[in-house]
TrEMBL record:
It comes from Cucurbita argyrosperma subsp. sororia. This is Glycosyltransferase. Its EC number is 2.4.1.-. InterPro entries: UDP-glycosyltransf_plant, UDP_glucos_trans, UDP_glycos_trans_CS. PANTHER family: GLYCOSYLTRANSFERASE.
Amino acid sequence: MAATSSLHIAMYPWFAFGHLVPYLQIANKLAKKGHKISFFVPSKTHLKLQPFNHFPHLITFLPITVPHVDGLPQAAETTADVSHPSQFSHIMTAMDLTQPQIKRLLQDLQPHFIFFDFTFWMPKLASQLGITSIYYSVISATTFGYIYTPSRQLCGHDLTEADFMQPPPKYPISTIKLHAHEAKNIASMGRMKFGSDVLFSLRHFTGLCESDAIAFKSCREIEGPCVDYLISELKKPVLLSGPDGDIQQPTTALEHRWAEWLSGFNAGSVIYCAFGSECYLTKDQLHELVLGFELSNLPFFAALKPPLGVESVGAALPEGFEQRVHGRGVVYGGWVQQQLILEHPSIGCFVTHCGAGSLSEALVKKCQLVLLPHVGDHIFRARTMSSHLKVGVEVEKREEDGFFTKESVCKAVKTVMDEENETGKAIRENREKLRELFLDEELEESYINNFIHDLQVLIA
């Protein structure tokens, strides 16, 4: 295939906005270069993604009917439509049941590639149809290197907390270490059935091993050693689409009520907090979080889902809290335009769960990072940002159970927001250097050009 030949790429990411949005970001990058994208998306969900489609003549949303599965609310399509993490597995089951629809679409479209992540059955289906399958991962290379290498997954026994307290043989980054509660959580997740009676770990490992190639939304400047480690472990091509400096802004404006509220504060003074569609806090932890914001004496805007077992986020707030923070603090339970909020000049600090999409959006902005990961990949991204690159501060947690306090939340916020804090000064300097790297248009351009070239080589 000639270097200038147009590619046709189908995409089918996991039904969570932390995956859908990054897939649309790479779709926009590829479309900008003239390549055609067929984006498979739940039928109602595409309306939320449409404002971020900057090349509608090249990126086509193809609606997928999501079958109803017992245990899900009627018309649930994504993880944002359910009220408990235990229901994510049902969303996965529903996604697995769309396989006949995907097969028909791929037969009709005959794209060069299918980009996928959680649908472990995709490589075999694509192979039957003569389509090249790319495991395009929103999960980091650092995480996959630690958890999903053959030396780990084919060890001959069920992986335990003790196994995950140690990195696999020859793992290249010594600063990536897990706490006991994190290792326990990762071991438990690996043994969990996740859709269609498939173990969570086997779902990922199968997709990695059976795909024609693996791709990461990453760059060597951040994950180079782990990329090389995966190449040596998995014996297949690993492609990198590069940093996300060119995060396309949505075509809509920030909702007036939030724009007006944020404009009432000084530049760089507001804490913004959001944990994505898949993260649920207990009521006790939500209390500690918002009380930590109150303790900081800084204005704050928190977009949070209700805790487990509570109907609304307002009903979960500490007694008297709303009265005490009136005028300087908002806790909102609905969906917000995160990119536009992070862009607002009053935002000085982002308290994040370290989802891939959220970090990509934040790293090109001027806000400082407070890292509060909860599960899986988020933990490794937090450790990369805090311990390896030293561009953010993690909220301290108890070793045995991961519980955090209002004091630890306040301490982390103050570290990055207090201009006189020496640790904070070093972090802010590193943070600005990383931001400049992500905004380097030549670097980003070279990555996407190389990515497209590597795709073309795969089907030459």
